[in-house]
Backbone:
C-alpha cells in the first residue's frame, strides 16, 4: 500500500525487553457536482478497492472501519480525533475498530483490545494508548504468558478483578474476534496503519485526506455517498 507508515516489531532473542521500531512507508475520475465526493479526488484522497469486500450491516447503515495497532504512534495520534468523531458522526454510520494482526505482538495487543470489549470496558481503549506511548508500558512481551500478566496488571489498576479478566481473556468471544481480525488483515491486504475502510469498498487514511480533520470530513462524505446508493 502506498499510504501511512509500516509498523514493524521485533524481539531480541537474548533481551528481556520488547523493542518497537517504526519506519516510514510508502505504502481520478470526474465526480458529479451533486455528489458528496465532489471536492475529493479518487486515487489521491481515497481509493476504490479492486475487490470490494462484503459487509454485514443493518439496512440503511454504512460501515466505517479503522484498522489500527496499539503500538503505532500514528494510530495513537489519530485516536482522539476518532473518539470525538464517534460522538458527532451521522447516525447511519456504524463505526468499528479492527486491530491489525501481523505477528505475535500485534496479536497480544489485539487480545487486549477484544478483552476490553468482552469486559464492557471500552472506556479503557484510550488508556491503553496512554500506557504504551506516554507511560512506556508496552503491554507486550516475548511470550503470551508474560503479556497476559502485563494485561492483568494493567486492568487491575482500572478496577477489573482477576476472575473477570480470566473469563473475558479466555472467552470464545475473544477467540472468535481474534480470528476475524486475522482474516480482515489478510482479506483487505492491510500493509499499513492506521487505515480506514468504508463499506468494504473505499479505503483512505489521514495522510491521503490531508490531515486528521480532513479525514473526518472525507469519511462523512464517503459514507453519505454510499448512503445515496442504497
Residues:
Amino acid at each position: 500500500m502506498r499510504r501511512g507508515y509500516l509498523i514493524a516489531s521485533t524481539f531480541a532473542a537474548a533481551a528481556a525487553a520488547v523493542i518497537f521500531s517504526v519506519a516510514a512507508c510508502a505504502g481520478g475520475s470526474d465526480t458529479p457536482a451533486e455528489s458528496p465526493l465532489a471536492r475529493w479526488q479518487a486515487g489521491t484522497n481515497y481509493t476504490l478497492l479492486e475487490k470490494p469486500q462484503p459487509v454485514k450491516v443493518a439496512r440503511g447503515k454504512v460501515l466505517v472501519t479503522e484498522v489500527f495497532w496499539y503500538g503505532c504512534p500514528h494510530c495513537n495520534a489519530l485516536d482522539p480525533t476518532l473518539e470525538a468523531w464517534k460522538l458527532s458522526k451521522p447516525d447511519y454510520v456504524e463505526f468499528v475498530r479492527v486491530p491489525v494482526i501481523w505477528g505475535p505482538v500485534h496479536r497480544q495487543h489485539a487480545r487486549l483490545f477484544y478483552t476490553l470489549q468482552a469486559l464492557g470496558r471500552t472506556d479503557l481503549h484510550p488508556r491503553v494508548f496512554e500506557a504504551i506511548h506516554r507511560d512506556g508500558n508496552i503491554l507486550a512481551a516475548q511470550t503470551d504468558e508474560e503479556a497476559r500478566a502485563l494485561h492483568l496488571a494493567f486492568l487491575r489498576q482500572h478496577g477489573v478483578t482477576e476472575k473477570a479478566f480470566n473469563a473475558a481473556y479466555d472467552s470464545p468471544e475473544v477467540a472468535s474476534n481474534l480470528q476475524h481480525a486475522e482474516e480482515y488483515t489478510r482479506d483487505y491486504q492491510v500493509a499499513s496503519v492506521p487505515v480506514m475502510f468504508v463499506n468494504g469498498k473505499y479505503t483512505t487514511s489521514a495522510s491521503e485526506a490531508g490531515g486528521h480533520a480532513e479525514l473526518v470530513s472525507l469519511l462523512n462524505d464517503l459514507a453519505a455517498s454510499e448512503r445515496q446508493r442504497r
In short: The first strand starts at residue 7 and ends at 11.
